[in-house]
Amino acid sequence: MGQQGSVEKRHDGMKDTTRLPTRAELQKLLESLLPANEEMDEFSASIIIERAGVEPEVFTQGLRSRLERRAADVRAQGKEVPQALLDTLELLERRIPDEEQGTAEADRIVRELLQGRVSGAMPEQNSSGPVHAFRSSGVELSEEDIRLLEGISKELREQAGEEE
Amino acid sequence: MSEPGEKLDPAWVELERLKIKLRGVALRLFAERGCFGDFVVLPGTSTCAADLVGDTIGNLLIEGYWHPGTGGEDPFPIAYQMLYRDFLDLVKSSEHTKAVIMGPTDAEQLLSASHSSSEQDRAEAQLRLESYRRPLANDPEALELLELHLSGVEKRADKARAMKITEQAVTNIQKRLVYKVHRWEQSFWDNKAQ
Prior knowledge:
The two termini of chain A are 26 Å apart. Residues 1-10 and 118-137 of chain A have low confidence and may be disordered. With 164 residues, chain A is mostly helical. The longest helix of chain A is centred in the middle third of the chain and has 21 residues, at 56-76. In chain A, α4 packs antiparallel against α5. Chain A contains seven helices and no strands. Chain B is mainly alpha-helical. Chain B is globular and about 50 Å long. The two termini of chain B are 30 Å apart. Chain B has nine helices and no strands. In chain B, α2 crosses α3 (76-92), α6 (118-133) runs antiparallel to α7 and α8 packs across α9 (167-193). Classes of the chains: A mainly alpha (164), B mainly alpha (194). Chains A and B meet through α1, α2, α3, α4 and α5 of A and α1, α2, α3, α6 and α9 of B.
């Protein structure tokens, strides 16, 4: 039976057996829907970041350390550190106090080791990632979407089980 | 990171916005070279995606292109140019050339060059569209946009014209579609974790 036949079945009240997209197809479609790098927006970047599955706090701590080293390099060359860099470091210091920086990093490593995963090693295999990346995105799923997603999710589970 | 009701510092908001966009770009560029995640070093170099973002922001600040919170121009266009230039330098470095890994994009390009034809592409697009009809059954706008996308309509203005809606409306529908596809893809991992 062709694709059209499968679609018509749905209107007859029978179970729709149209093939669902595979994970590889979903990944390919998602990549094609996201903008080109030079046109990146916050929403799309948030999707990419969530798929990578790393906590934003860890990244920000790393950024602070990196900028501190840059400031030290400038000083070592006998030059004055630009005010923009000093202001940005002060901004980061206000948000991430020193005492928290070390313990948060240690806590994270221990937590991830206990969970049996190494940060960044196989990020796509982490489950849902930091959902707060979407809190300001303005995109919300309706109850109907959630119900549909749950149904599709169940089928995908069965489909994934068959593929393995 | 901010408390409820706390007034957002414009400098922090600017820094966060730039950081998120650069991080998205860097993650994607590294992933194309087989390096997934913020802290996975590109083979033959000592640089990961997080380093590239940190260095780009550092260069912007040191070279006077940007001062967060002072009301200047959007720093992303120049930041992207700097980041991409540095990434290309990394890839071209002799050490990396010796240890080059063929990324998924390269492999896909080779495959598509050797196997694709427009007729085959159209048939595959139709099959792909059918597989999305049920998941998007309650969102006809997203399905219509997807149909245009899969049939090769790329520009937002062309999609808006075809759908007889504004470009902003196309953007909103596309975001919704991206979010749904992302959630479905994530559900594979959620299911495996159960």
